[in-house]
Write a structure and sequence with these properties.
- This protein is mainly α and 175 residues long.
- Helix content is 79%, strand content 0%.
- The longest helix is centred in the first third of the chain and has 56 residues, at 3-58.
- The termini are far apart.
- The relative contact order is 0.04.
Length: 175
C-alpha cells in the first residue's frame, strides 16, 4: 500500500476526531448556557415568590374577612332579588292566564255582541291584530252552564275559578 493512502486515512481520521471534539465542546457549551438560564430563572422566581409571600403576610385578615362578609351579603341580596323577580314573573303569568280564561269565558257568560251590532261594521283594531282569535271555535255552553237569570257575582266567580282549575289540571305535565 502506498504511503499517501495511509496519510490520507490518518488525516481523515484526525479530521473526524476534531469534528467530534468540536461538536462535543459545542454541546457542553449549550448545556452550560441552558443551566445558567435555568439558575437565573430560578433566582427570579424565588425573588417573585418572596415578594408574594411578603404581600400575603402584609394582608390584614380582618379586612379580608370584612370583604368576604360584604361579598356574601351582596350575594344574598342578589339571591333575594332573583327570588322576588321570579315571584313577580309567576304572578304576571298567572294574571295573563286568568285574563285569557276570562276572555275565553266571556262569550259563554255575556250575550253575543255580534247580534247587537249590525253586520256591516268594520273590524276593530284588536281583531286585525289577532285574527286567529276570531277563528277559534267556542264551546257552546250546556244547559247547566248557561247563566241563570238570578245568578249573582259570587256564583259567576266560583264558576270561573272552577273552569281555571280544570284548565290547570289539563295543562300539568305528567311525570
Amino acid at each position: 500500500m502506498p504511503n499517501w493512502i495511509i496519510i490520507v486515512t490518518l488525516l481523515v481520521l484526525a479530521l473526524l476526531l476534531a469534528l467530534g471534539l468540536f461538536l462535543l465542546a459545542r454541546q457542553r457549551k449549550r448545556t452550560r448556557l441552558e443551566l445558567r438560564l435555568a439558575s437565573g430563572r430560578r433566582q427570579l422566581l424565588g425573588r417573585e415568590l418572596q415578594i408574594y409571600l411578603a404581600e400575603l403576610d402584609a394582608l390584614d385578615e380582618e379586612a379580608i374577612a370584612a370583604k368576604r362578609q360584604e361579598a356574601e351579603n351582596a350575594l344574598d341580596l342578589l339571591h333575594i332579588a332573583l327570588v322576588e323577580r321570579q315571584a313577580h314573573l309567576l304572578n304576571y303569568e298567572d294574571m295573563a292566564h286568568l285574563q285569557q280564561c276570562k276572555i275565553d269565558l266571556l262569550p259563554t257568560v255575556a250575550p253575543d255582541p255580534s247580534e247587537a251590532l249590525p253586520e256591516t261594521t268594520p273590524p276593530t283594531e284588536p281583531q286585525r291584530r289577532r285574527p286567529e282569535r276570531s277563528q277559534r271555535e267556542f264551546k257552546q255552553p250546556t244547559a247547566s252552564e248557561r247563566p241563570a237569570e238570578g245568578r249573582d257575582r259570587t256564583t259567576i266567580e266560583g264558576d270561573l275559578l272552577d273552569k281555571i282549575n280544570q284548565l290547570q289540571d289539563r295543562k300539568k305535565p305528567k311525570k
